[in-house]
Amino acid sequence: MTAPLIDPFARAITYLRVSVTDRCDFRCVYCMSENMQFLPKKELLTLEELDRMCTTFIGMGVRKLRITGGEPLVRRDIMTFFQGMTRHLDSGALDELTLTTNGSQLARFAEPLYAAGVRRVNISLDTLDEEKFARVTRWGRLAQVLKGVDAALAAGLKVKINAVALKDFNEDELLRLTQWCAEREMGLTWIEVMPMGDLGNEDRVGQYWSLNDLRSQLAQHYTLTELDERTGGPARYVRLEETGQKIGFITPLTHNFCESCNRVRLTCTGELYMCLGQEDMADLRAPLRNNPKDVAPLQEAIRKAIGLKPKGHDFDYSRQKADGQVTRHMSHTGG
Ligand code: SAM
Ligand code: SF4
After folding, report:
1. pLDDT digits over 81-110, tens only?
2. Which of 84, 190, 266, 328 is most buried as measured by Cβ atoms within 10 A of its Cβ?
3. Rounded distance, CA 129 to CA 176, Å?
4. 265 - beta bridge partners?
């Protein structure tokens, strides 16, 4: 183990989010355009490279890995990667191995994921209405995802549902979704829609629904108790006293939590983004690929990149664009 990763603002970097593919079996309207161009295979880190990369980060103090995408479970043989990471859980070097998924493949993978040491999953689901689900995901089928949720619970995984808050789309499902999650002892986290990518779609389902508004609506039906929990990320949590359920609010457009930010993001091509909201990144694929036997150049590149982690993001007043919009897609950096 080398010295821990500490950024210029004295934040320890202990959480790595890894996008293992830019591909997906859905085309959610706020995330992808209908005709996405995906990366050629040779651009992607191989499964062995992903293993070496994550192992190097773990050796430098990363304690939590979240696997994402694109849809992580559509990457071929991805279970081999998860099974490889089990050794770091077993050795105690890694506290948590988890993933964010659209749930479409969970009926198949929930049990092997549990066997590999995964204990919690985040499943993205914005609506319980079949027709609306088809509209927002373009290619998804609700029944398949619901089967995935059931399989995850049956396998013993703790499930948290992530829903993007969309005005005039799932506003009317606030209570239904809350109750549905409560019945299954699942947490529910609402995400404010972010200005990511140039999606070129005029037919956007819904619009920005402020989480302040969502929260006031919830407070009309439940007793909300603020929880002190800090994740190092832009999430805030409350407990609903009537159900005991945890409800999260992710408002990435506010920068209130950058001071406790403990995370960096790796894309499927080996680019390390130090901040979701800014364009600064470092290429880690070259030092990884060019030095198959020597880990030192990669470690040096990682340390140098962490040394450039910005103090905070600037969605509303960016150096890049007036409105702070970041041009890459969410599926590229991983949500
Ligand atoms: N495919 C997986 C899934 O959907 O869970 C993992 C990747 S997806 C990019 C991760 C999360 O980002 C999902 O919960 C999705 O709803 C969210 N997301 C995608 N585009 C977004 C946007 N423009 N604003 C807010 N959240 C977004
Ligand atoms: Fe795919 Fe997830 Fe993006 Fe939807 S949000 S298109 S499921 S990557």
Report:
1. 999 999 999 999 999 999 999 999 999 999
2. 266
3. 10
4. 17, 273
Tell me how far the alpha carbon of residue 68 lies from the centroid of ligand 2, in angstroms: 10
Q: Looking at the CA of residue 164, tell me the nearest atom of ligand 1.
A: 16
Which DSSP symbol is given to 36?
Answer: P
- Yes or no: say if 263 and 232 are a contact pair by the CB < 8 Å rule: yes
29 close to ligand 2 (CB < 6 Angstrom): no
N residues, the chain: 335
How many whole angstroms from 57 Cα to the centroid of ligand 2? 26
Using CA atoms of 15, 29, 107, 85 in order, give the dihedral in degrees to the nearest 10. Answer: -20
- 15-333 in CATH: which number? 3.20.20.70
Sign of CA pseudo-dihedral 65, 70, 74, 78: negative
Q: Whose CA is nearest to atom 25 of ligand 1?
A: 193
Q: Choose which residue among 164, 205, 251 to substitute to test ligand 1 binding: the one with the highest number of ligand atoms within 8 A of its C-beta.
A: 164
Kindly report, residue by residue over 296-332, the tens digit of the pLDDT: 999 999 999 999 888 886 654 333 343 445 555 566 6
HSE-up (13 A, CA, CB side) for residue 282: 20
**Ligand 2 pocket, residue 191 CB under 6 Å:** no
Phi-psi sector, 156: left (phi>0), alpha (psi -120 to 50), beta: left
